[in-house]
From TrEMBL:
A Pfam family per the record: CcmH
Homology family: Belongs to the CcmH/CycL/Ccl2/NrfF family.
InterPro entries named among the record's database cross-references: CcmH/CycL/Ccl2/NrfF_N, CcmH/CycL/NrfF/Ccl2_sf
CcmH/CycL/Ccl2/NrfF N-terminal domain mapped to chain residues: 10-151
Transmembrane spans: 105-126
Protein name: Cytochrome c-type biogenesis protein
Region forming the signal peptide: 1-21
Keywords attached to this entry: Heme, Iron, Membrane, Metal-binding, Signal, Transmembrane, Transmembrane helix
Amino acid sequence: MRALHLIAVALMLALNGPALAVQPDEILDNPVLEQRARDLSSGLRCLVCRNESIDESNADLARDMRILVRERLVAGDTDDEVVAFLVDRFGEYVLLRPTTEGSNVILWIAAPTLFLFALGGALIYLRNRARQQPDTTDLSDAEKQRLNELLND
């Protein structure tokens, strides 16, 4: 029973981690705007923590970005305008899910293309390797017989 309580407490602490990043003084009074801010913050990258959203990060820059998002929402910006403002200010790296437009198309296409080239190269190599016959000209009769036994198994 005690182990169950420990697991429950550990699970609550693990799930509560991201909620601790947003400070109480950052939360907006309007619950609709606050939910929009949380949704936007979960899609924006913390520039200090790398692959962590600003909603989850405790870094000072992430806090500043969360406040900036909330200020823009209170000013009446749409979600797209807020994201565009942050992209203009910090660059497209701020997006956790980059767009598939412009030069990013190369990044989206490069990995599958390289995978297909590697797969094709591997298939060609394996096909050529299967076609090759072992060179038996320098083998003795006993070695040829043993080779044939191994190949026929």
